[in-house]
Amino acid sequence: MLALCVCSAVAIGGCGGSSSNAPGTYVKSVCTALAKWSSSIRAAGTQLQSSSTSATSLNKGKQQYLAFVKALVGDTDTAIGQLKKAGEPDVKRGKQISSELVKAFAEAKAGLSNAANNAAAIPTSGAAAYQAAASGVTTQIRQTLAQMANVQPERDPQLHSAAAKEPRCRSLRSSA
Asked: How confident is the model over 89-98, as pLDDT tens digits?
């Protein structure tokens, strides 16, 4: 999944917020936040898949899809808070490293919020119009997550080493 690729790339490079932390402590906090985010995103997708088979109308399908997109927004917002709480790594350019990831998630939240607005506007008057609009929202979500995957945080040897030792980071890479 694209989100997992983002998580592993970011964990190796570093991310965070305002207080300074030892590289290992920082990486553990970041990988924990990213693992929770990734799990929440997957759970929302699974919920949408299981509920969509029982949708009895276009309106019901729209409501389920809107709930899915709103869950993505909420989960991303929660991740932003956790990444800020992780602070900054106590490494060269730590503040910049942490800011890059928080910024990537904030931009993703904005893109997902836009997708949620578009999901709310999906027409339910006919199947063709519904499908076209829902496909457009799905494309927005994919593009937003793809932009996150393109984030290239600075590689810091201390953070890279800490991520290689941290089980939470390794599990992100192995599930990618």
From this structure: 999 999 999 9
